[in-house]
Amino acid sequence: MRLAGDNKLHAAPLDAPQRILDIGTDTGIWARDIADKYPMADPITQISCTLHYLVA
């Protein structure tokens, strides 16, 4: 996932993040890309925000 028009992975100003939380970006491509950009960070993945009880 890239921010439209800027080809950036995030909008927040980050210098040296220690942990990066990936919440429901589906395939995990964003988490891999951000881990490549910040190899010192620990990406936290596999958290889904799916609300199954709302599906009829």
Q: What about the largest sheet?
A: 2 strands, parallel
Runs in which pLDDT lies below 50 for 5 or more consecutive residues are: none
Number of domains: 1
How would you sum up the global shape?
A: globular
Percent of residues in beta strands: 15-25%
Order of helices and strands: EHE
Strand order of the largest sheet: 1-2
Radius of gyration of CA atoms, rounded to a whole number: 13 Å
Number of strands: 2
Structural class: alpha+beta
Distance between the termini: 29 Å
Question: Could you estimate the helical fraction of the residues in percent?
Answer: 10-25%
- What is the arithmetic mean of pLDDT? 75
Total number of helices: 1
InterPro entries: SAM-dependent_MTases_sf
If you had to describe this structure to a student in words, what would you say it looks like?
This protein is α+β, with helices and mostly antiparallel strands. The protein has one domain. The protein is built from 1 helix and 2 strands; from the N terminus they run βαβ. It has one helix spanning 29-37; strands at 19-23, 42-47. The protein has a two-stranded parallel ribbon with strand order 1-2. Helix 1 links the parallel strand 1 and strand 2 (42-47). The longest helix is centred in the middle third of the chain and has 9 residues, at 29-37. It is globular, with a radius of gyration of 13 Å. It starts with 18 loop residues before the first strand and ends in a 9-residue tail after the last strand. The mean pLDDT is 75.
